[in-house]
From TrEMBL:
It comes from Neoroseomonas eburnea. InterPro entries: BUG, Bug_dom1. Pfam families: TctC (PF03401). This is Tripartite tricarboxylate transporter substrate binding protein. The keyword Signal applies.
Length: 322
């Protein structure tokens, strides 16, 4: 179990602002619900539980209760976050890509720019994975195989059409001018099962999701779609290093509904900034294989909206829903 730490915020140059518009007893008057739009045990759920456990000691009186509300690829839970009462007692954990991709595919009840962005925790890059004994050694080998015979190489994506796992494949196809036989799955466990059994030749899922199997010598990663190599997988080159300018992953963080009390938002931002500044937070994240990308407030919002522009441009060039 991760030990709770009580850090003096003043020593970090941070202070919790006095609340004026939220309930006077916030955050101690009642628990803060953390809505997770996905089932327990997934990447967003893990980040929600890790982050709130770390931050609770830095927000005196705060009690966080995680509520999983899966459905419609995260749409139901994100709508619940966006439309929650803006009283400081409901926040949510999201995968940023869904904020931008789902509105391209169907009507949703949120606007990306109107969420209250509190803190991003991780940015878990996508990877393309093969069995340890596969003849494919790198992305160049994969591209060459696809050029020779596109239908001879099946690529399974963990979260299906429109997910980051799918978009990384679309990005490689675009940069390399190839096409792959795409097999969408409903979860990482399912695509890993079929990769290990040989039912698919290549699988796309996030780096943190493959690190254990890679360390066990069962699978290899052809490339990680991150700006730089993740330290936990330093032996795996990035897509860019192999000549393909593709950067796609799952950024996971904490947001609130529009109209979230500004004082409460600033207090949460200060608590997250204090946690990020603590070396123990980084050590704990490394222990559970979380690739950190700590951002607070406006910087987090800017990242999500910039990601949305990239996604919309990709969708305009090659829509994945027809």
């Amino acid at each position: 179990m991760i030990a709770r730490r009580h850090l003096p915020l003043a020593g970090l140059g941070l202070s919790l602002p006095v609340l004026r518009h939220a309930h006077a007893a916030w955050p101690a008057d009642r628990p803060i619900e953390v809505i997770v739009p996905f089932p327990p045990g997934g990447g967003v759920d893990a980040v929600a539980r890790f982050a709130t456990h770390q931050v609770a000691p830095l927000l005196p009186g705060a009690r966080f209760v995680v509520s999983n509300r899966p459905g419609a690829s995260g749409q139901l839970g994100m709508e619940a976050i966006f439309n929650a009462a803006p009283d400081g007692h409901t926040i949510g954990a999201i995968g940023s890509l869904n904020v931008s991709t789902l509105p391209l595919e169907r009507p949703v009840r949120w606007k990306a720019e109107e969420f209250t962005y509190i803190a991003n925790i991780v940015d878990d890059a996508c990877g393309l994975w093969v069995l340890a004994g596969s003849p494919l050694r790198n992305l160049g080998d994969l591209v060459a195989a696809l050029k020779r015979s596109p239908e001879s190489v099946s690529v399974g994506s963990a979260a299906g059409v429109g997910s980051d796992d799918h978009l990384v494949l679309l990005g490689l196809e675009e940069k390399a001018e190839v096409r792959a036989l795409h097999a969408p799955f409903n979860g990482t466990a399912q695509v890993q099962r079929d990769l290990l059994s040989g039912a698919v030749n290549v699988a796309s899922f996030n780096m943190s999701e493959g690190i254990v199997l890679m360390r066990e010598g069962k699978i290899r990663c052809l490339g990680q779609a991150s700006p730089q190599r993740w330290s936990a997988a330093a032996e795996v080159p990035t897509f860019r290093e192999q000549g393909f300018d593709v950067v796609i992953g799952s950024a996971r963080g904490i947001v609130g509904p529009p109209g979230f009390p500004p004082e409460a938002a600033r207090a949460m931002e200060a608590a997250f900034a204090a946690a990020f500044a603590d070396p123990a937070f980084t050590r704990d994240a490394e222990r559970v294989s979380l690739p950190l990308r700590p951002l607070v407030g406006a910087a987090y919002r800017d990242m999500v909206l910039a990601e949305g522009e990239v996604v919309r441009a990709m969708f305009a060039r090659r829509p994945w829903r027809r």
